[in-house]
């Protein structure tokens, strides 16, 4: 019997009515002749409610206890989903992360899954039960402590279960219809993608697209699990994330993959500029060592050409806004040692990323990209690229305009029918 | 190091402020030089909130999933208590029932503890941690399913932990100062008892006193664990439940135990009367078999003397009000077979029980008891007795008057200073 793994997020499980709707959907999948395993998140905003409670009790709660607290949310939603399913006449069994065999490392708050031993799940499936698993959580190897995988971790739970059970597909249900060429709230003409490669999805997720959690895509790529991102509010087909070629079209010709997958944006970053750094070997290293010691993840880095007259240079980097204070403090501690003149902090920036596997073989992409931004009057402050991505930092208040301009320039708007295809055979 | 087990109920953990107060209390106990293990209930009304959610999703939720749901409540409170303790500079570790080694049978919703294997608790104590355990829950032997012990189960968790850890005392914190000679809301002059025997406490708990859960007292008696019932809102000494004699008084003479421990009342029962039962062998058996098959617990039974002229008799019994409908339906199903004429249901009754180990050697007790009720104008509908208890059924609206009359007649009112002591050496 085919195994389907499904994931439902908090917005699909906001209240009793939503839970009943999700239960009907799960029952349909079972009735269609599948073994069904479901990973669920906590209901609606309940995770935030628990965090608020923790804050009231302790400003800096111990991570072990915070994990113990947070995992209660999925326990509640999974039991309710199982009840709603049994109310429809199907039998369901819920399992905590620990019971489901989700083994992690011991890093509370952002544990990594290192193994899945789904013995109880396969047993329950063999008995004809629908299986509901608490997402976002696991149990640490050896020490058997309850851990959580961090925000978005339920996506990863679902993919990890799909890999361990050799499922045919992992369906990620969310409140949008799939992966879009841009955020439809900013670009109303954004188009839903039918297919996207893991590589492109990874770049989009890393660039601010919130539809799939980065780690879940990495996991899916490693174990070659096709992900189907779709809406829990409709029955439309969503977006398939896979590296396998699309099935042949009706006339037998393979559907050409578009060059550009989409435009992602990110408002969660800030920029730090270290001004007047002596242009000597090892100074940049000292600066980034200080920031790294403060456990801060740096994204983009730019070092200006040294003004030879002064022998001084400026170094800018971006980082999560929430790490801003920590980074500035860490830098001030090394200011005397490194000898720079000032630290500037700027949280009014935005990041725009263009992602597409076709960039590799289409040198025209970057010209079109920068021309679109220039035409829209958007100034570029920093640039970084990968083989299949170009990212730029702009002023935050220009970000929406920039996204729309780039989206249109690459023919991604749905009104234009087809995406621009550079070179190649086209269609 | 002495081991103290403490239990805090939902009313002591209603919100963040209450949790912080409980944490200070726990920290004090640790600072006084004890190893501390704490069993906690779910916060305030959160158990009822979860039950409401379950009802919205499924009118008859599967017991396994209901247990999974309910256990989330203690998970939340124990993590918050552990956080609040660590915020005071002490280290705390919380454990679920399963992690704490609370092994039960597999009866969901009212599982019985069959073993406690507290390996992780003793390990954590050895490392100097304060241990917080989720009350009310365990894991079933063999099948490893999450179970709950039923309402009041956290008392039992605490006593079972105390027994397994060979604790010096099990402190049950509640919102009253201890065990009283009667419910102070009905009898304002009720006195707090300094000591009470397990046997008397069992009878009080079985007769409607809510201060301790019946099963926890049975457990404490079996393992000879002294229970200290006290308030989480004050530092007053509460009531010690133990079979060991009281320590000697300042002049070397043992404190005489009072004859009467207290007066309990219960409004949760109803009365069923089966009218016109043919007075033949086996008819009563058929009636109670029908009721037992419906999983109903019967309390008191009265069969009237048969009216020889008709050859018919009436049989009355009491049962939990909530089981009333099920009992009446079960009886109607056997009406034709047994041949009785009608079933009457009466939920306007009250039960009053007088409990005291001194009854055994003091024949005057029942005379005083019935005279007090007669003087108060309270009619008695049913009577049942044990060696150390007399219970009567009265009209529900007379119950408060009856409790006060009996309380006064036995000199239990605090204004009178001392309890009446029949015979013996007295004081």
UniProtKB/TrEMBL annotation, chains A, B:
Classification via InterPro entries: AceGlu_kinase-like_sf, ACT-like_dom_sf, ACT_Aspartokinase, ACT_dom, AKii-LysC-BS, Asp/Glu/Uridylate_kinase, Asp_kin_monofn, Asp_kinase
Top-rank taxon, per record: Bacteria
PROSITE patterns: ACT, ASPARTOKINASE
Domain ACT residues, every copy: 272-348, 354-427
Pathway: Amino-acid biosynthesis; L-threonine biosynthesis; L-threonine from L-aspartate: step 1/5; Amino-acid biosynthesis; L-methionine biosynthesis via de novo pathway; L-homoserine from L-aspartate: step 1/3; Amino-acid biosynthesis; L-lysine biosynthesis via DAP pathway; (S)-tetrahydrodipicolinate from L-aspartate: step 1/4
UniProt catalytic activity: L-aspartate + ATP = 4-phospho-L-aspartate + ADP
GO MF annotations in UniProt: kinase activity
Keyword Kinase annotated: yes
Pfam short name (any one): AA_kinase
SUPFAM superfamilies: ACT-like, Carbamate kinase-like
EC number of this enzyme: 2.7.2.4
Enzyme class: transferase
Keyword list, A-Z: Amino-acid biosynthesis, ATP-binding, Diaminopimelate biosynthesis, Kinase, Lysine biosynthesis, Nucleotide-binding, Transferase
Reported function: Catalyzes the phosphorylation of the beta-carboxyl group of aspartic acid with ATP to yield 4-phospho-L-aspartate, which is involved in the branched biosynthetic pathway leading to the biosynthesis of amino acids lysine, threonine, isoleucine and methionine.
Family per similarity comment: Belongs to the aspartokinase family.
Protein name: Aspartokinase
């Amino acid at each position: 019997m085919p195994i389907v793994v499904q994931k439902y997020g908090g917005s699909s499980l906001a209240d009793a009515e939503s839970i009943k709707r999700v239960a009907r959907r799960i029952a349909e999948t079972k009735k269609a002749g599948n073994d069904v395993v479901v990973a669920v998140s906590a209901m609606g905003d309940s995770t935030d409610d628990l965090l608020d409670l923790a804050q009231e009790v302790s400003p800096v709660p111990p991570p072990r206890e915070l994990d113990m607290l947070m995992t209660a949310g999925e326990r509640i939603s999974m039991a309710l989903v199982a009840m709603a399913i049994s109310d429809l006449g199907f039998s369901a069994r819920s399992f905590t992360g620990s019971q489901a065999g989700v083994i992690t490392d011991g890093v509370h708050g952002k544990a990594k899954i290192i193994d899945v031993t789904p013995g109880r799940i396969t047993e329950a499936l063999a008995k004809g039960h629908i299986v509901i698993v608490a997402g976002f959580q696991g149990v640490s190897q050896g020490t058997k402590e309850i851990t959580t995988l961090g925000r978005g971790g339920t996506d990863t739970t679902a993919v990890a279960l799909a890999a361990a059970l050799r499922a045919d597909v992992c369906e990620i249900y969310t409140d949008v219809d799939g992966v879009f060429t841009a955020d439809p709230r900013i670009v109303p003409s954004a188009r839903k993608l039918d297919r996207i490669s893991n590589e492109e999805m990874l770049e989009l997720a890393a660039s601010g697209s919130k539809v799939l959690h980065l780690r879940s895509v990495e996991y899916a790529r490693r174990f070659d699990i096709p992900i189907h991102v779709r809406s829990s509010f409709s029955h439309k087909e969503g977006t398939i994330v896979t590296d396998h070629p699309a099935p042949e079209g009706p006339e037998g010709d393979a559907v050409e993959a578009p060059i550009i997958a989409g435009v992602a944006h990110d408002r969660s970053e800030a920029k730090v500029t270290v001004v007047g750094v002596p242009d000597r070997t090892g100074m940049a290293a000292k600066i980034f060592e200080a920031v790294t010691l403060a456990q801060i993840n740096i994204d983009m880095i730019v070092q200006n050409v040294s003004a030879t007259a002064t022998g001084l240079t400026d170094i800018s980097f971006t980082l999560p806004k929430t790490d801003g204070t920590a980074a500035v403090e860490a830098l001030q501690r090394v200011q005397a040692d490194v000898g720079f003149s000032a630290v500037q902090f700027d949280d009014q920036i935005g990041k725009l990323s263009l992602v597409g596997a076709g960039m590799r073989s289409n040198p025209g992409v970057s010209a079109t990209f920068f021309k679109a931004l220039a035409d829209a009057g958007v100034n570029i402050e920093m640039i970084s690229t990968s083989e299949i991505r170009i990212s730029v930092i702009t002023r935050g208040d220009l970000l929406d305009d920039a996204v729309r301009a780039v989206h249109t320039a690459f023919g991604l708007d749905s009104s234009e029918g087809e995406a621009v295809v550079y070179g190649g055979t086209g269609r």
